[in-house]
Fold:
Amino acid sequence: MGDESSENRAVGAGPADPMITGLVLAAGRSERMGTPKQLLPFGRVTLIEQVVRTLTRSRLGKEVVVVLGYRAMDIVKRISGLPVRLAYNPDPEGDMLSSIRCGLAFIEPDQAIMIALGDQPLVTTGIVNRLIDEYEGRPEGMVLPVHDGKRGHPMILSPLYREEILFESMPGGLKALRDRHSGSVRAVPVDTDAVLIDLDHRSDYEEALRRWKEEPESGER
Structure:
């Protein structure tokens, strides 16, 4: 699962990529889960720590912003020791785009952004680095992982989309943006469905935790 050579390179805390800032979306209430999923245990850490550590151990390094909302202070206590910047979404019930807009306020206008979901703990640094490699090779458009013909996350967006995201009406969110610029989307095939899975229900969480325990290559320890 993922590119092991890229993953091993990342764990050594190599230089941060100057072109891309990671943006972790973790503002939601998680009502379907019945509890704040960001704070659920995942091995020796919490779910949100697992996701954030994956990005900070990648070539993004310290270039990571985490957008918080519901139970923000509880989450801050868990990730305060990690090298990230924090943004706050005052409307955590809003859509994904509202959190992206909040996060962009903490990111330089010339930076591409890697949008990562706060409930995808099985995505590895190897996958993150493969996406970075693809974007670096041609720093334009959008780069995202695809598995079994389905698009997933994290995804990288060129800074050219910044103004569009900030100021244009986009009822369909990121999907509408992708559809609007379909000719600029580059898909990176990956051999794991980790890029498709998010944890909306308790059973999703339990399955992800089982996989993490049984498959050494899924996620970081």
